[in-house]
Design the sequence.
């Protein structure tokens, strides 16, 4: 049965009834027959014992002059598909498609009591009790039926790979976290890394660590009281400081934007240096909690072998080839988690498979079957086939469809997903459409305490659209008040006119521009960690907001009260669209309704998503192509060659030879000239020659190909030839000529940056004119300037790569 929430369930039924009426009028929003009649509202409301005035007072229904009604979401969609910058200007959207609402279900996370966990874990009674206490202290009132089901499989069935494929917000992470904690508690006296959890993005790892840290901190307090050792965690990636002498530690920087886990404390966690190690400490003077379960620096993590390591594919690959981190993977390892595994596609998937092959060749993580792999994601078509390609195994793969498991749950909550596809008028751009949608959703969110995310898959576009919406549309023009204020636009008092936004703004006649602008922000990977954390925490804490983001907010980051998603242009993968829209509609606060708006460009490749059934490629790709699978390029020859080189470094690092991948211990103090670099590389080749037999065996084991030994020798020969050529070319180069070239590059970078800014300012002014004047000549100039600006940005990117 579904869990009863009468007001929300009533609202869902009204949306479904209204959509059926829209279908009958072929989605003609202007036709009064597409709206709810008084009888429609009364019939639905009576079933739930809800008063119509309650729906009206909360803004869930909009009354039209002819005594018909629209639900808040469909009324918002009506104004979205008819967007225009001025009352007299043509509509920006030319085509639109409003898909039939999709019904999903969210589980009840209190269906299974925490007490029932004791029987599932098979831990000693005292350890099972403190695990339940730690979960209770961390805000868990229980777990969901499907979490109990999958946890039992993880703990009591013997498989080499476990697949967790369920929607966003279904609690996948807690399942493998609990399995790991039960394993650690069952051998609490044993030191060494038990689990490596790999995340595709650093921001996601930080967010997940915060949620997990609350449980571990509480659990450790109980373990300490019993005189037992604490469970330790390490977050090892490119943002991890190398040692206590690193800038982040010395400056006491914020630690990954993570807040103190104590409910009564709002402090931020910061680095702190003690005599012999770095610590993480709450900066609230009244708290000052020390989180000594966290091993802070790379050095501490590599030598301390924490029970759980949070990392990513790139970092783990590098650690395999470094001498200082050789103890990170040891005999205690029992779990390797690949979270958001759908991202391991094509080349990245090929690298993932080869890394796992090398892990197996070195530590027999697959061959002996001691290590359990978990593949977790919301979106994996053909999950078992995907696991076989990614892990490289053909049997002992556990998978059960989430929907089938959820059928046995006694309690669940209905969620509606509303998809809208919009294509702009050929005379207007997709960017203009996205900007106007951002304004519409911002006004709606501001007035109704709702949040939205606008996804843009380009860093420069994120900031450009953000700047134009906030600086020009809102603060300079106050365009939002054109839709609200009768003294500016008299017709806005008529709710039937789509240009009026009073119905979605709680009948407000104006909104202060500064206040509205304050709810907007942007987020991307180029922000400094502290700034990213500030943006995320602000967005989570405020009642309303609209954030422009690249894919950095796509995966796993827990912001439970997002109401709407705008996707600017078709994303690179269908999984991205599903993941992004899955961010919305996850709580009662947003009525368990997810609104997803896809903005298309005018290109034929994108317009097809508004025609026919092409949109299914985004929301249900298997209906279009039942044979669709996530491609993994593990047979790619270039990827294979790279991992042959990595294999050489794996063996050298395992034998204790410097591979020069750790600056602190292997480069600093050793390299002072180009000759030093060449000599070091020649030394590596000589060492590889001496370890050739081991390299052959390693390559054979990793590739399971008898020809691999020959490949490894050919790879080594190619490296030696390239070294010889490089040595000849570098003869005669001196430091002065290199520094002079770098200086010219810096000057060029400065000039190009200035040109890009100037062009952006010019384009902003032209956009301002274009909002009020339809001049083909200006539009052509605008397009040409955009092309020049993009070209200069590409030059700038190339210069930055050269500078590195």
Sequence:
């Amino acid at each position: 049965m579904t869990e009863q929430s009468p007001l929300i369930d009533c609202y869902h039924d009204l949306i479904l009834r209204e959509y059926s009426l829209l279908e009958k009028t072929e989605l003609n929003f202007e036709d009064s027959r597409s709206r709810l009649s008084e009888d429609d509202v009364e019939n639905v409301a009576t079933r739930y014992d809800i008063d119509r005035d309650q729906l009206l007072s909360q803004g869930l229904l909009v009354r039209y002059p002819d005594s018909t009604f629209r639900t808040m979401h469909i009324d918002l969609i009506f104004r979205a598909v008819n967007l225009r910058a001025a009352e007299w200007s043509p509509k920006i959207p030319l085509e639109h498609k409003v898909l039939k609402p999709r019904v999903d279900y969210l589980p009840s996370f209190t269906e299974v009591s925490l007490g029932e966990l004791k029987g599932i874990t098979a831990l000693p009674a005292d350890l099972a009790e403190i695990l339940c206490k730690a979960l209770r202290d961390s805000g868990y009132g229980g777990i969901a039926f499907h979490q109990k089901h999958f946890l039992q499989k993880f703990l009591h069935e013997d498989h080499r790979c476990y697949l967790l494929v369920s929607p966003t917000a279904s609690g996948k992470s807690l399942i493998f976290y609990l399995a790991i904690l039960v394993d650690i508690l069952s051998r609490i006296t044993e030191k060494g890394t038990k689990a490596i959890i790999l995340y595709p993005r650093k921001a996601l790892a930080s967010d997940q660590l915060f949620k997990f840290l609350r449980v571990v901190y509480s659990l450790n307090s109980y373990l300490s009281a019993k005189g037992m050792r604490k469970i330790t965690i390490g977050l090892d990636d490119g943002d991890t400081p190398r040692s206590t002498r690193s800038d982040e530690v010395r400056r006491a920087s914020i630690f990954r934007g993570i807040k103190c886990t104590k409910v009564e404390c709002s402090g931020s966690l910061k680095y702190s240096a003690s005599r012999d190690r770095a610590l993480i400490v709450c900066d609230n003077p009244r708290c000052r909690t020390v989180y000594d379960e966290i091993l802070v620096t790379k050095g501490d993590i590599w030598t301390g072998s924490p029970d759980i390591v949070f990392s990513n594919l790139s970092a783990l690959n590098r650690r395999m080839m470094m001498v200082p981190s050789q103890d990170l993977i040891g005999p205690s390892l029992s779990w390797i988690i690949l979270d958001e595994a759908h991202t391991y596609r094509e080349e990245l998937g090929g690298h993932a498979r080869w890394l796992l092959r090398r892990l197996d060749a070195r530590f027999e993580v697959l061959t002996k079957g001691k290590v359990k792999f978990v593949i977790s994601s919301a979106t994996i078509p053909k999950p078992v086939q995907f696991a076989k390609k990614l892990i490289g195994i053909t049997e002992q793969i556990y998978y059960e469809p989430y929907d089938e498991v959820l059928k046995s749950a006694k309690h669940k909550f209905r969620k509606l997903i509303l998809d809208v596809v919009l294509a702009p008028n050929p005379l207007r751009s997709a960017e203009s459409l996205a900007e106007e949608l951002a304004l519409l959703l911002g006004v709606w969110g501001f007035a109704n305490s709702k949040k939205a995310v606008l996804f843009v898959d380009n860093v420069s576009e994120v900031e450009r659209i953000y700047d134009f919406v906030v600086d020009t549309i809102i603060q300079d023009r106050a365009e939002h008040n054109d839709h609200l204020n009768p003294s500016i636009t008299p017709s806005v008092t008529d709710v039937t006119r789509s240009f009026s936004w009073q119905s979605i703004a709680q009948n407000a006649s104006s909104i202060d521009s500064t206040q509205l602008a304050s709810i907007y922000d942007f987020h991307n990977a180029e922000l400094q960690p502290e700034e990213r954390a500030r943006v995320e925490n602000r967005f989570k804490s405020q009642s309303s907001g609209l954030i422009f983001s690249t894919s950095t907010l796509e995966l796993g980051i827990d912001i439970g009260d997002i109401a709407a998603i705008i996707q600017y242009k078709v994303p690179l993968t269908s999984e991205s669209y599903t993941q992004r829209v899955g961010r919305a509609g996850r709580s009662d606060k947003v009525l368990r309704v997810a609104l997803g708006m896809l903005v298309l460009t005018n290109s034929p490749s994108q317009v097809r998503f508004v025609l026919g059934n092409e949109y299914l490629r985004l929301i249900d790709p298997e209906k279009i192509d039942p044979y669709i699978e996530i491609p993994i390029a593990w047979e790619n020859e270039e990827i294979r060659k790279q991992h042959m080189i990595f294999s050489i470094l794996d063996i050298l690092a395992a034998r204790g030879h410097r591979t020069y991948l750790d600056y602190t211990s292997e480069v600093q103090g050793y390299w002072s000239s180009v000759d030093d670099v060449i000599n070091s590389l020649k030394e590596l080749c000589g060492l590889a020659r001496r370890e050739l037999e081991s390299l052959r065996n390693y390559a054979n084991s990793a590739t399971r190909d008898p020809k691999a030994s020959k490949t490894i020798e050919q790879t080594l020969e190619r490296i030696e030839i390239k070294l010889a050529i490089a040595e000849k070319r570098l003869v005669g180069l001196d430091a002065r000529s290199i520094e002079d070239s770098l200086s010219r590059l810096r000057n060029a970078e400065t000039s190009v940056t200035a040109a890009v800014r100037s062009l952006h300012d010019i384009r902003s002014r032209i956009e301002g004119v274009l909002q009020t004047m339809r001049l083909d000549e200006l539009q052509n100039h605008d397009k040409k300037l955009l092309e020049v600006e993009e070209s200069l940005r590409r030059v700038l990117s190339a210069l930055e790569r050269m500078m590195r």
Summary: DSSP finds 30 helices and 21 strands in the chain. The chain has a mean pLDDT of 88. The first strand starts at residue 61 and ends at 63. Residues 637-730 form one domain.
